[in-house]
Amino acid sequence: MIQKNKLIRQIVLFAVLLMITFWLLLKDASIDDLIRLIQHLKYRYVFIGLFFAFVYVICESFSFKLIFNTLKQKTRFINLMRYSFIGFYFSAITPSASGGQPMQMYYMKKDGIALSKSSLSVLLCVFGYQTSLIVLFLFSFLFQFSQMAEYLFKIKFLLTISSIINFTLLFFIVGMIFSKKLLPNLINFIFKFLHKIRLLKNIEEKQVKLHLAMEEYHRCATVFKEKPVLLFQILGTYLFQLIIRFSISYFAAKAMMIHKGSFIDFITIQSIILFCVSSLPLPGGIGISETLYITLFPILVPLHLINPAALLTQGMNYYFIVIIASIVVIYSHFRYNK
To answer: Are 99 and 3 in contact (CB under 8 A)?
Structure first.
């Protein structure tokens, strides 16, 4: 589990980045302008966007359900929802969203789910998410390139770095699922390195435990090789999930009565933003997400509304869910302590 002092530092960093982002987006806006903007919002679209944000998180719960049913692991759906919010919260406050999956496995273990099953379920969900993100990015990049070449050129360095990281990560995940040697060899290498620099003792004992865990892991993985349809079900769930998330920017624009651009236009540009942000070592991509929105969305959003639109979009698809997820985490913490 993430150490408490490290977790506190990450939460503080998250809060500081959030305050800086709000200040940069609102520093040139007058209070009167903001009040008028809030008064004239079409709130039915705001509520639709918030509902879609909630559905976005819950979609992962259905993926967990599909996997656990295949593994014959009985789990209440309310717990699967809890794991999804826990994953979202810790991904939001840790660099490169690195804390979400370990914390999901931690709470699954608290509920009596074997590590071999929880690690495989999390890995398959990461596979579904990463594959879906890359598929939607490639479609969006090709679909929008002709009309967005000028804007995409401004972020060419970030696009290149993000492509290298995201495609490498997908290759690594596929290797972990379908190769019997990649994951054990990688962990063995890490063990030996930590032992060499004297950060790990009793390496032989650790390697025996690793071997036993990997045997159980590969027994579970065999189930999915025998039922490849499950991988396509997971992939379909995550494609739907990401489209739901990307559509929130459209409803934010409708709430502000911005009529330029189609539903597909908003989804494609938002997918390019998330593709770039997901590879960066910042908690939740705070600041970068808003900056990329301001950089790429002038094609659809008037410049005098671009900052409020970026803030409203992030508020609906990110800050709102972070608040709900933090409540779920607090509840889970006190539940297990009790």
So the answer is: no
Alpha carbons 171 and 181: distance in angstroms, whole number: 14
| Rounded Cα distance, 27 and 43, in Å | 24
Q: What is the rounded distance in angstroms from the CA atom of residue 42 to the CA atom of residue 312?
A: 12
The string of pLDDT tens digits covering residues 16-37 is: 655 655 555 555 555 655 566 6
Token pair for 159: 């696009």
Instruction: Tell me which H or E stretch contains 303.
Output: none
Is the pLDDT reported for residue 8 higher than 70?
A: no
Cβ within 8 Å of residue 137, ≥6 positions away: 166, 271, 272, 275
CA 334 to chain centre: 25
Place of tokens 């054990």: 184
Instruction: Kindly report whether the global pTM for this prediction surpasses the value 0.85.
Output: no
DSSP structural state of residue 42? -
Rounded to an integer, what distance in angstroms lies between the CA atom of residue 183 and that of residue 288? 32
The DSSP code sequence of 236-282 is HHHHHHHHHHHHHHHHHHHHTT---S-HHHHHHHHHHHHHHHTTSSS
Residue bearing the bigger pLDDT, 334 or 263: 263
Q: How far is 86 from 65, CA to CA, in rounded Å?
A: 16
Give residue 25's identity as a one-letter amino acid code: L
Six-digit token string for 34: 């903001």
